[in-house]
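Re-running the complex after MR caught last week's input typo. The corrected sequence lines follow. Everything else is unchanged.
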Amino acid sequence: MDFDIASILAIDGLASGAIYVLIAIGTVLIFTVTRVVFIPFGDIAAFTALTLAALEMGRLPGTAGLVVVLAGMATLVEVVALLRNGRAHEIPGALLYYLALPLALVGVVWLSEPLYQSSMVLRILFSLILILPIAPLLDRIVYRPIADASVLMLLIVSMALHFALVGLGLLFFGPEGVRTEPMTDAIFEFGSIMITGQAALIMFAAVLFSGLLYLFFDFTLIGKSLRATAVNRSGARLMGIRPERSGTIAYIVGSLMAGVSGILIAPVNTMFYDSGFLLGLRAFVGAIIGGLVSYPGTAIGSLFVGVLESFASFQSSAFKDVIVFSLLIPILIWRSIVSVHTEEHDEE
Amino acid sequence: MSRFTLRLAVLIAVLALVGAPFLLGAFTITLMNYVGIYALVAIGLALLTGVGGLVSFGQAAFVGLAAYSSAWVTALNGGSPWIGLLLGIVITCAVAFILGLITLRLQGHYLSLSTIAWGLAIGFLFGNVEGLGKHNGIASIPPISIGSVSLVESWQIYYLIWAVVCVVLLLVYNLLDSRIGRAMRALRGGNTLVESLGINVFWIKVTCFVFAAFLAALSGWLYAHLSRFISPTPFEPLMGIEYLMMAMVGGAGSPIGGVIGAAIVTLLKNFVQDYLHYIIPSGTGQLEVVAYAGLFIVFLQYARGGVVAWVQQYLPATAIPRPSQATPLARRDKPAAGTPLLKVDQAERRFGGLIAVNKVSFDVNAGEILGLIGPNGAGKSTMFNLLTGALQTNSGSITFAGKDITRTRQSNIAQAGIARTFQHVKLRPKMTLLDNVMLGAYPRTHTGLFSGLFRLNRAEEASARYDALQQLERVGLGDKPFELAGNLPLGNQRILEIARALAADPVLLVLDEPAAGLRRGEKQQLAALLKSLRDNDKLTILLVEHDMEFVMGLVDRLVVMDFGEKLIEGQPEAVREDPRVQEAYLGGTA
Amino acid sequence: MPLLTIEDVSVSYGKVDAVRSVSLQVEEGQIVTVIGPNGAGKTTLMLATIGLLRSFGRMTFMGEDLSRLSVEDRIEKGLCLVPEKRELFAEMSVRDNLLLGAYTRYNRATINNELEAVYERFPRLKQRHKQDAGTLSGGERQMLALGRALMTKPKLLVLDEPSLGLAPLIVREIFHTVASLRELGVSVLLVEQNARAALETADVGYVLETGEIVQSGEASSLIHDPRLMAAYLGGH
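Corrected-run output:
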C-alpha cells in the first residue's frame, strides 16, 4: 500500500466515520438521558435516506404511513395510561401532542408536494420533519412503560425493536435500494490528495452538528436540564425536571442527527430498508469507545471505526465486519475497567 | 403439592412424549423436533441469564459452531456424526471458555454488549470462510445413526432429541440444587455478597457460561443432522434474540421454562406464518418479524416473570421434609483466647480528594468482642470494607492470623476465616432461608460441577443442609427453613445474615451495624447470642455499630472513629466518659 | 390548616414494612424535626413524602391530596427535598446546579436576583460558581444542595440528614441557615441523627423507632427528656 492509496482510504474512512459520529452522538445522548441503548438510530438514518429518495421520485414516502401508525398506537397507549391513573382531564392535551401534532407534520408534507418538487433543500427539510416524530413515538409506545427496568432489559427491548423496525421498513419502503441525487460534484485537490465535495460536506456536517449540540447543552436551560437528567436522574426529578420530557427532547435531537447522517450518506451508498443495522452497529462501536458517556470520546471512536473499516475492507473485504466487531471486545474490556461501577446497577 | 404428585406429573409428561409420534401427524412431530432443539439452547440461557443474570445475545453463534463443526466432519470429510458431535462440543466449549475468560469480568451491560460483538463476529465468519460453503451453506449432511439404525425419519430423530432434552433437564435440576448451583443462583444481585462468602465469582460465571455453550453445541449438532443442510442465517444475532425470547417467555431462571418458552415461540411463529396472510395478503415475511418482535416487547412490558412463574403462583408449594441429622461438617481450630488475631496498621483509604480512613491502627484479640463505633460518616464502614477485602487500602497493612491480607482477594479472605454481614442487608430474597445459609458453607464444602450434575454429592449436601438448619435454629429462625428470605421482616433479615456467616465456621465474625432497625427486645436477644458465640464457640467478633446503648453492655473493648481517624480506644466505661466522644456524638451546637 | 399532613402512612419494601402507620403535621412557618436511630425508617418516610417511594395512607399538602401527584408535580406545588445523598449534578458547575433549581418556574426574569440572594447567603458558592459541583468539599456540597433547593422557591423544605459527615463548625452553620429559613416564610421538615442540634433548632419533634412514632412533642420539652437523650448516648 502506498501513500496515495493510504490517503484515499483514510479520507474515505474519515467520511464514513463522520457519518457514524452523527449517529453515535445521538446514541450517547439517549443512553445518558434515558439509560436506553437505542440501537435503532441506524434504522432512523436509513429511513431518512429512503424518505428523501421517495420525495425525489415525487412519491409520498412510506414514512408518512409509519408515523400515522405509530401516532395512533402512542395515542392509544397514552390515553389508556391516563385513564388508569385517574388523570382523564389530561386526555385532550395527549391527543394534541401524540395524535394531532404528528398528523399535522405528515399533512404539511403531503399538501406541499408542488413545493418540494422544485427544491432539494425543501425535500431534505421535509424528510427530516417526517423522520423526527418516529423515535419519540417509539419511546412512548415501547420504552416508557418499562422506564424503571434495568439497562439490560432495555437493551433486549432495543434489539427486538430494531428487528421490528426492519420489518416495518420493508413493509413501508419496499425491497428496492435507493441512491439520491448528489448534493455537490465539487472535488477539492490538495497536492495528490483528492477530497470529494460530498465527503467534505459530510465532515462539515459532523462538525457543525456537534458544535450546535455543544451550544445547546451549554447555553440553554433545556439543554442543561438534559445534562442534569443524564448526570443524576433522581437529582433532576427533585428539581422538577421530568425524565419523560427530557427523554422526548433527547429522542428528537438524536433523530435529527441520525436523519442528517442518512441524508448525507444516501448519495454515496445505495440504501436499503435494512441498511440501518450495520450503520447503527458501527456507530455504536464508536459510542462504546466513548464509554456511552463522553461526546469527544465518541467522536474520536466513531472516526476510528470509519478509518479501521476502510483499511480493513482494502485488506480483506469479506472480513471487515468480523474485524470491526472483534475489535469491540478489547474496547469493552478497557471501558469496563475504567468505568466506575456501582453495585446497585446489578440489583434486580 | 407432595413429591408423589410431582413425580406423577413428570411421569405423565414423559409418557406423553413417548406416545406423541403414535398420535400426532408427521408435521407436528417435525415441529416438536425443532422445539426440542431450541429448548436445549433456551435451557442453557435460562441458567445463564435467568439464574446467573448474564444476558447473552450470542448463543446462536455457539449453536452454529457445533453445527458447522459436525457438518465439516460429516458432509465435507465423510466422517461419522459422532465424531462431529465430539468436535462440535470441543470447539464450542473451547471458544466459550476463551470468550468467557476474556469477557466475563466485564460489568453489567458491557458483558451483554460483548455477546452482541462476538455473536456478530462469529456469525459473519460462517458466511465468509472458504471451505464452509460461504453463504450457500453446506448441503447433504448425513443423518445420525445409532448402531445400524439411521435416524432418517422425523419420528426417529424425535426420540433422540427428546431423550437428550429430558436428560439435560434432569441434570440441570440436579445442578441447581448443588453447591455450585447455589453459587450460580447467588450471582444475580451483585458480586459483593458472593465474593464475601468465599466464592470465586469469576469461575462460577465461566462454568455457567461454558455449560450453556455446551447445551447450545448439543442443539447445533442435532440441528445440523435434522435439517441435513445448514447456512449462516440461523446462527445470526436475530436467532440469538429469539433464543433469549424463548428463555424469557418461559420464565428466565426456570429450566423447564426454557422448554415451554421454546414451544410457545415456535408454535407462535408457525401460527403467525399460517394466518398472517389472511389478514394482510402481501408482505407476510416482514410482518412476521414485526409481529413477534412486537409480541416480545409487549411480553417484556407486562409479564417479565414468564409463563412458569405465572403458573407457579396457582400451584401449591412442594412440601420438602426438614433436613435430618447427618455427619457434621469439619470445623476449624480456633486460636487461643487473648492472642492477637487481626492487626490493622496505619490503614488509609481515599476516595478522590476525600480521606475516608486516615492512618487507623488497632488490634483484635482472639476471643473478644471489639466494638468499632463513631457517628455517621466517620469511616467505620470503609474501615470494615478494607479489612474484609471489599475495598483496597491506599497504604498501610492488615494482618489476619499472622498472614498479610492487605492485597488478598475478598473471596480468599473469606476462606481464611473472616465472615461478615452487611449494613444494607444483602441476601438472595428469592432463595429460601436454608439455601441462603447454605451459601455461607461454600468454603467448607468441596463437591464440584460433575458431582452436582450426577448427584454424587449426597453425603456432603446432607451434612451442609443439617448444619445450615442448626445455624438457623441457633439464631432463632429454625421454624420455617423453606420460607423465602425476602419475606422476612428487616430485623430478621439481619439475623439471617448472621446465621449465614456462622455457616462458614469463621474464626472472626465481623458485623456491620447488626442492631440497626431492631426493636429493643430483639436487640437484647442479639446481644445474648453474640455473647454466647464468644463464650461457648470461642468466636472473635468485631462489631461496627452506631447504637451506643447496644454496644455498651456487650463489648470488651471499644475503638472510636471520627472523621476517618481513630479518636480513642479503651474500655467501654472510659470511652463513654471521654469528652471528645460526647462531642462527636452530640454534635457541635451544644 | 396545616401545610403538610401525613396520616396513617405506611411504606413497605416488598413484604417488609419500613414505616408503619405514621402520622405527623407541619404547620406553616414551623420547623418540625423527625429524629431516630439508623434504620428507623426516617429516610424512607421522607422519600415517600416527596413521592419517590410508594406509600399507603393519606398525605395532603396545602389541603391537596398528594396521592395522584408525581414527584415533579409536588416540586411544582412548592415541596422540595434535599436528600441524604444531596443528589447534586456532580459534573456541572455550581452556577448551573443553582440555575436548574429554578427549572420549574416560568418567570425567568427574576432568576438572576435570586441567584445573587443565594450567593449572599453562601458566599463560598459565589467564589466557586464555575467549579464542578463534584469538586466541592462536603460542607460546600451541602450548601449547594440547600441553595439549589431554595432556588425552587419551596413552601416546605424537607431536609434529610443535613449534618451527615460534616465537621462541627459547618454543622453549626448549616443549622443556623435552617433556623433562618423561618424568616423567608419557608417551613422545614428536618430529619436528623444529631438529635440535640435538631431539637434546638426545631419547634416540634417526633421520635421514630423501627418505623413507628414512639414519642412527640414540643422540641424544647423533648430536649430535656432524660430517657430520650440517654437512648442516643447509651447508658444513663
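None of the earlier attempt is carried over here. Residues 101 and 149 of chain C are 6 Å apart (CA to CA). Chain C touches chain B at residues 14-18, 37-41, 135, 138, 161, 163-169, 171-172, 175, 193-197, 200, 209-210, 230-235 (CB under 8 Å).
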